[in-house]
Write a structure and sequence with these properties.
Elements (H helix, E strand, L loop, with lengths): L1 H17 L15 H22 L3 H12 L1 H4 L4 H7 L5 H19 L3 H24 L25 H15 L4 H25 L4 H17 L4 H21 L22 H20 L21 E2 L2 E2 L25
Antiparallel strand pairs: 1-2
Length: 346
């Protein structure tokens, strides 16, 4: 009974997967509301305040050095191996592949390119904003610090803000941004926040980032997610253009133009013969045909001419016959067969 119930449940699952979905008529697209604009402005102000606190070497920089001297990777070495793998959840390559696979399946099921295009726009904003900030501020990491107590700004580094942390916020937060229901959005928002929090603290534990780097990485990723609704009109136009291009190519179909025949060399035709020429040709070919019918043609394996029978052909060499002489062998008779001696009379 339990096996039959499980089979029926699997049949329902596969039937749902095999069902051809219809393109959604209305998708819950986040709008740039007043509440969202206020949150974006507050987050941007916090971003600038964090940068200013590091530039003036305030208490935040002193806290960075205290955490670095604490060396968390030496305090809890038993979790080092696990966190080495956990920090991969903040790397752009592996996480982008995983999220793209999931969003690609959603795009296929919903017949819309919006999930993939939104994710691409978020990654583009992340690379531009965080990459420009990293290069512009040039802060060195804890492993390459030169002066104790300094902010290490303008030294040619690229760790402020933390790219791992910002990427974790955007990559996992895009799932909450594209959620279809408010309940799913709340749960995915909480899950992505915990994921990005863990990735950021892991980089501090491993000693690859200052604590202020991680704080600014959280803020930078949140700014990207809050600014995404401004990209929605461009995403819609891009999707419409791609789908129209696909429809035009489908309507055009394969080319039906006839294939031109291959032109070869012109055939050479013999001119028509007159009646007198035909009579003369028949008279010339008649004797040859009669003579050929009387004389049998030689086999193809024999040369023309007379051929001796086998008894007349004796294999000889310039010294004579190749057959050795025998004293007790009688010579072959060439006369009447009745004169040959019988076997019993010898």
């Amino acid at each position: 009974m339990r096996t039959e119930r499980n089979l029926a449940r699997l049949d329902r699952v596969f039937a749902r997967l095999d069902r051809e979905p219809g393109r959604p008529t209305h998708i819950d697209v986040p709008k740039m509301s007043r509440h969202r604009i206020a949150l974006l402005v507050a987050t941007l102000a916090f971003y600038l305040a964090t940068v200013w606190a590091v530039v003036i070497t305030s208490w935040l920089v002193r806290l960075d050095w205290q955490v670095m001297f604490f060396r968390p990777y030496q305090q809890w070495p038993e979790i080092h191996a696990f966190l080495d793998y956990y920090v991969v959840l903040g790397q752009r390559g592996p996480t982008a592949v995983m999220i793209s696979a999931w969003l690609g399946w959603r795009a296929w099921r919903q017949h819309t390119l919006r999930p993939l295009l939104t994710f691409g726009a978020a990654l583009l904003l992340l690379n531009v904003t965080v990459g420009a900030a990293k290069i512009g501020m040039g802060r060195l990491g804890p492993h390459y610090a030169t002066t104790i107590g300094s902010n290490e700004m303008g030294m040619g580094g690229d760790i402020f803000p933390s790219g791992h942390t910002a990427n974790a916020v955007v990559t996992w937060g895009i799932l909450a941004y594209l959620a279809s229901t408010p309940w799913t959005r709340r749960w995915l928002s909480a899950g992505s926040a915990l994921m990005s929090l863990g990735v950021g603290l892991t980089t501090v534990y491993l000693g690859t980032h200052w604590l202020s780097d991680v704080i600014l990485g959280w803020v930078a990723g949140l700014l990207v997610l809050l600014a995404l609704p401004w990209c929605e009109p461009l995403i819609t136009r891009t999707e419409t253009w791609i789908l129209d291009l696909r429809d035009r190519r489908r309507a055009r179909g394969p080319s039906t133009a006839p294939v031109p025949a291959r032109v070869g060399s012109p055939a050479m035709f013999k001119p028509y013969a007159t009646a007198e020429e035909e009579v003369t040709a028949r008279e010339n070919t008649a004797p040859a045909a009669r003579s050929s019918s009387r004389t049998p043609a030689h086999p193809p394996h024999l040369a023309p001419g007379t051929h001796a029978i086998r008894s007349e052909r004796s294999p000889v060499t310039p010294a004579g016959s190749r057959r050795p002489p025998h004293a007790d062998r009688a010579p072959r008779a060439t006369g009447n067969p009745s004169t040959r001696p019988l076997p019993g009379n010898s």
